[in-house]
């Protein structure tokens, strides 16, 4: 089984009085490892990396790797570390290359890289960008296709070209194109992890390998059970589990991520309900809705 399968948590970054709360971060990693997730994504969009300086990002990675070392993930061998993928973002290839070279020294499972945001390069520029970064990486690469954040999508021909690189092994699929998703799955060279939580059931049924799901911060065991049911061919059981999760997924994306997730975690006493501007806390109405929903 590929390492890039199952349910992955794009971990939030907890804050306390404005600083990173490393005790809470460490506890979250262990919580999700115990719940059977396949791995952790550090410094993905949900982790608010744009609001962390370089030293804070390095400290977050170190804490996550330390906490993941006990190896309780659903696809890890007993005693093996829970896999950690690190997000790397930017729109200047040279600086991203330097960052990837720094990450080469760490015991991470891979790097997650989106297309350069804001500058909207050509598809040829995107191919050269990712090939340059993959050449620099000693770790597997997960492409991140999320055009509503970057301003440019990875066209199917681009993805298939990039799939030829030996270190480009998976894609976090947020493009919203069924044709592209199915074509990548049928091609078979890239593991397809959906990043759209409402598409988890569809993607897994089509033959995708898993999900990087912010919603899985909540009721994690059910998301893991959904994956395991569908991987075992238990379609009716998988459908039943997914239908119970749909209202939760809708609620957790009713306002900008990760505010709803943080509100729920705070209501459970796991973190403080803090974000850094320009992100703001979930509205009182939504926070109360999530707390009531969880009680039910």
UniProtKB/TrEMBL annotation:
The EC number(s) this enzyme carries: 4.3.3.7
Pfam family, one: DHDPS
Domain of life assignment: Bacteria
Class in the EC hierarchy, top level: lyase
SMART domains referenced in this protein's UniProt entry, alphabetically: DHDPS (SM01130)
Residue numbers binding pyruvate: 46, 212
Catalytic-site annotation from UniProt: 144 (proton donor/acceptor), 172 (schiff-base intermediate with substrate)
Site residues (Part of a proton relay during catalysis), renumbered to this chain: 45, 118
Keywords for this protein: Amino-acid biosynthesis, Cytoplasm, Diaminopimelate biosynthesis, Lyase, Lysine biosynthesis, Schiff base
SUPFAM superfamilies found in the cross-reference section: Aldolase (SSF51569)
PANTHER family: 4-HYDROXY-2-OXOGLUTARATE ALDOLASE, MITOCHONDRIAL, DIHYDRODIPICOLINATE SYNTHASE
Family, similarity comment: Belongs to the DapA family.
Identification of the protein by name: 4-hydroxy-tetrahydrodipicolinate synthase
Source species of the chain: Paraburkholderia phenoliruptrix
Lineage: Bacteria, Pseudomonadati, Pseudomonadota, Betaproteobacteria, Burkholderiales
